[in-house]
Write a structure and sequence with these properties.
The chain has 371 residues and is of the alpha/beta class. It is built from six helices and 17 strands. The protein has a domain at 15-252: Alpha-Beta Horseshoe (Leucine-rich repeat, LRR (right-handed beta-alpha superhelix)). Helix content is 15%, strand content 18%. Strands 1-2-3-4-5-6-7-8-9-10-12-17 form a twelve-stranded mixed sheet, with no helix packed on it. A three-stranded mixed sheet has the order 11-16-15. The chain has a two-stranded antiparallel ribbon with strand order 13-14. The two termini are 39 Å apart. It comes from Enhydra lutris kenyoni. It holds the Pfam family LRR_1. InterPro entries: Leu-rich_rpt, Leu-rich_rpt_4, Leu-rich_rpt_typical-subtyp, LRR_dom_sf, LRR_domain-containing. Residues 342-361 are annotated as: Disordered.
């Protein structure tokens, strides 16, 4: 353990480590004021300041001067209820670690955060183990953020504005009370690691197949009963964690189907029979409706559907070992052969089709963690 106030300087940079010393806020303040004075005349800049596991209830005021070159600040394991305006003075900060505090109430983050230089400099933010019930709006303006950790909070949802974080590569939201994954999450082009374990998520939106950079997807200990078939399009996915979900212990084979409306029947007929029409033939609302046709995934069918479809589980063999239930949408109950449940014998058409489809994706997903 380093002595209180010990500084380590290497190759033109320095680290001040005051961790686990259980210093009073007053003592920390005096120590930082002294070190700040020293650094003003020093050749090397202080880049890393470690203050975890002390008794801080607020950020030291001394951070407002003498620490303008700081790149990493660790204030984890304290009793902070707010990150005050002192944070805004750290204009070059790249990494902020503030896990296991008491952050989450009104004013937990400083006003003006989204307009401060931190909006362009901060790349890693860890606020896990706090009391946030929602993702603060100001965090969604930190456009340079590459890693965001909010695990072990009390989050109820993921805001659609998460798509603003276009530089995000790692998102950790495990251990919350999240029930839904917003489709907007798929608009993060660089996202490689997505952790949503230990929540209350019941389904995965098919839009996640657009996360072409995704390498690891952690969904264990949720309420999933199936996966969308589009998950096979995650071409770089190397790890998929699903243990502790209902789909692992009991497969859902119930089919639900509501008869199509007269509007849908007419629209299906137009599409299937290739009846020509122009914008002058139909009202705008019908033209818009006809544009929403979805092709039936059964290659032997050739049908389409709009609002009415059969939701059916298809079992796909991953990596030659695991059989996962994927959701399929069919145009009618009669259209079931290539996409039917793998509850028949291993020589059935559905089984062979499942294995053919899985052979395309098995090499992509090197780890399927179910148990």
């Amino acid at each position: 353990m380093e002595e209180a106030g010990a500084a380590v300087a290497t190759a033109g940079e320095a680290e001040l480590n005051l961790s686990r010393l259980s210093m009073s806020p007053e003592t920390v303040e005096l120590e930082l004021e002294a070190r700040g004075e020293e650094r003003r005349g020093a050749r090397e800049a202080l880049l890393r300041l470690l203050l975890p596991h002390n008794r801080l209830v607020s950020l030291p005021r001394a951070l407002s001067s003498g620490f303008q070159h700081l790149q990493l600040l660790d204030v984890s394991g304290n009793a902070l209820t707010a990150l005050g305006p002192e944070l805004l003075a750290l204009s070059g900060l790249r990494t902020l670690l503030a896990r296991n505090n008491r952050l989450g109430g009104p004013g937990a983050l400083p006003k003006g955060l989204a307009q401060s230089p931190l909006c362009r400099s901060l790349q890693m933010l860890n606020l896990s183990g706090n009391c946030f019930q929602e993702v603060p709006a100001s965090l969604l303006e930190l456009r340079a953020l590459q890693t965001l950790s909010l695990g072990g909070n009390q989050l109820q949802s993921i805001p659609a504005e998460i798509e603003n974080l276009q530089s995000l590569e790692c998102l950790y939201l495990g251990g919350n009370f999240i029930r839904e994954i917003p489709p907007e999450l798929a608009n993060l082009p660089s996202l490689s690691y997505l952790v949503l374990c230990d929540n209350k998520i019941q389904s995965v939106p098919p839009q996640l197949s657009q996360l072409h950079s995704l390498r690891s997807l952690s969904l264990h200990n949720n309420l999933l009963t199936y996966l969308p078939r589009e998950i096979l399009n995650l071409i770089h996915l190397e790890e998929l964690s699903l243990r502790g979900n209902p789909l692992v212990v009991r497969f859902v084979r119930d089919l639900t189907y509501d008869p199509p409306t007269l509007l849908e029947l007419a629209a299906r007929t137009i599409k299937i029979r290739n009846i020509s029409y122009t914008p002058y033939d139909l009202p705008e609302n019908l033209l818009r409706y006809l544009s929403l046709a979805s092709n039936c995934p059964n290659p032997k069918c050739g049908g389409v559907y709009f609002d009415c479809c059969v939701r059916q589980i298809k079992f796909v063999d991953f990596c030659g070992k695991y059989r996962l239930p994927l959701m399929h949408y069919l145009c009618s109950p009669e259209c079931s052969s290539p996409c039917s449940s793998a509850s028949h014998s291993s020589t059935s058409q559905s089984e062979s089709d499942s294995e053919d489809e899985a052979s395309v994706a098995a090499h992509r997903m090197q780890k399927v963690l179910l148990g």
